[in-house]
Write a structure and sequence with these properties.
Strand order of the largest sheet: 1-2
Organism: Postechiella marina
Largest sheet: 2 strands, antiparallel
InterPro entries: TM_pro_TauE-like, TSUP/Inactive_protease-like
Shape: globular
Family: Belongs to the 4-toluene sulfonate uptake permease (TSUP) (TC 2.A.102) family.
Number of domains: 1
Membrane topology: Multi-pass membrane protein
Number of helices: 10
Helix content: over 70%
Number of strands: 2
Main location: membrane
Radius of gyration: 18 Å
Distance between the termini: 32 Å
């Protein structure tokens, strides 16, 4: 095992710790780690991220379920359109993106660059939701019609499919605002959606990519260890303060990715 692999596995532990401590943000660390430290192609990195985040989120779902913070009915209602969009995105949309998106003079925006820049934009939006520490608002108890949930699930699923993220930072506000679920239960419920979306999305990649299962399973097991440790530490560390600090870190990461890809 060389030093790069060791760094990668240490990174996997940190990914799990972040998920365990703040309940999200795993893919925000996983994709840049795989691309910039381990040298994976962005398409492969986003595929691996789906598997890692999906598997660790499954563990997180169980932890939240034991505390009574999971609404399975609502989670599954969002999951159906979402996993359709994620699977179709990974199976057909991502492989169908041309290798060169456009050229202006000597500048060429490649497929990999485009995915990473789009990922950075989503990271920036995620960081805003992490930094904002507003009070939970009063919401209308009447849930919205299912057709709206279906369209919202398709939209969020397509975005998360392209960037290889779990999408918890998108699903939590959707569940609060649209499904009328309290914040704490929305976080737990989002993990069901993230688990189903990520793992089904990854199935689309299995059909188009060669997977290094030894590395991927080792990375995932270490991440699961991290989420278990993080879940224990969360009792002693303020998740709200940590999430806000992580939000600022994500902004720095987003700027770095854009600079790295477009320089």
């Amino acid at each position: 095992m060389d030093s790069t692999q060791i760094i990668g596995y240490v990174g996997a532990l940190i990914v799990g710790l972040v998920l365990g401590l703040i309940g999200g943000g795993g893919s925000i660390l996983t994709v840049p780690l795989l691309v910039y430290l381990l040298g994976y192609n962005p398409v492969v990195a986003t595929a691996y991220s789906l598997f890692v985040v999906g598997t660790t989120s499954m563990v997180g779902t169980y932890q939240k379920f034991k505390k009574g913070l999971v609404d399975f009915k609502t989670g599954l209602a969002f999951s159906f359109p979402s996993f359709l969009a994620v699977y179709l995105s990974r199976r057909f949309l991502v492989p169908g993106i041309p290798e060169t998106l456009f050229s202006v003079g000597d500048f060429h925006l490649s497929k990999g660059m485009g995915i990473m820049v789009f990922f950075a934009i989503i990271m920036f939006l995620a960081s805003i939701s992490m930094i904002k520490n507003g009070k939970e608002k009063q919401i209308d108890p009447e849930p919205q019609p299912y057709y709206k949930t279906f369209l919202q699930g398709l939209t969020i699923g397509t975005i998360t499919g392209i960037i290889g993220a779990g999408g918890g930072f998108l699903y939590v506000p959707a569940l609060v605002i649209w499904a009328k679920i309290p914040m704490k239960k929305a976080v737990g419920t989002s993990l069901i959606i993230v688990t189903i979306n990520s793992l089904i999305g990854f199935l689309g990649d299995v059909q188009t990519l060669d997977i290094d299962w030894t590395f991927l399973l080792t990375f995932t097991v270490i991440s699961i260890l991290g989420i278990l440790i993080g879940g224990g530490l969360s009792k002693y560390i303020s998740g709200k303060k940590l999430k806000k600090s992580f939000g600022f870190f994500v902004i720095i990461m987003a700027v770095y990715i854009i600079f790295k890809e477009l320089k």
